[in-house]
């Protein structure tokens, strides 16, 4: 059973059709690659920014517009969700 906290934008990120399989694979690679410090991708309605130095991930709801606040989660919570 998944013990990660419930984040609505994270559920969307991992949902069908939001990000392609290739982008999800790239995200997993970036999380595991010690040489990658930052990573960004945008899906249909969501943007994800990974900042490994800070150990955080920011999720943005693109439907809310360019000034939408980020939902910040830890990299550990993101990894647990996979």
Question: Helices, strands, pairings?
Answer:
Layout (H helix, E strand, L loop, with lengths): L7 H7 L6 H12 L5 E5 L3 E6 L4 E6 L9 E4 H7 L1
Antiparallel strand pairs: 1-2, 2-3, 3-4
Helix/strand order, N-terminal first: HHEEEEH
Q: Structural class, from helix and strand content?
A: alpha+beta
Give the terminus-to-terminus CA distance.
Answer: 12 Å
Q: What Rg is obtained from the alpha carbons, in whole angstroms?
A: 12 Å
Beta-strand percentage?
25-35%
Structure summary, number of beta strands: 4
Number of continuous helical runs: 3
Instruction: Sum up the overall morphology in one term.
Output: globular
Query: Main sheet, how many strands, which sense, barrel?
Result: 4 strands, antiparallel
Q: Uncertain spans, ≥5 residues at pLDDT below 50?
A: none
- Biggest sheet strand order reads 1-2-3-4
């Amino acid at each position: 059973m998944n013990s990660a906290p419930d984040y609505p934008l994270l559920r969307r990120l991992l949902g069908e059709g939001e990000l392609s399989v290739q982008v999800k694979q790239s995200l997993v690679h970036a999380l595991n690659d010690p040489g990658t410090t930052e990573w960004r991708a945008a899906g249909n309605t969501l943007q994800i920014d990974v900042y490994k130095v800070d150990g955080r991930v920011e999720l943005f709801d693109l439907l809310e517009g360019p000034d939408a606040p980020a939902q910040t989660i830890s990299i550990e919570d993101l990894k647990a969700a996979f």
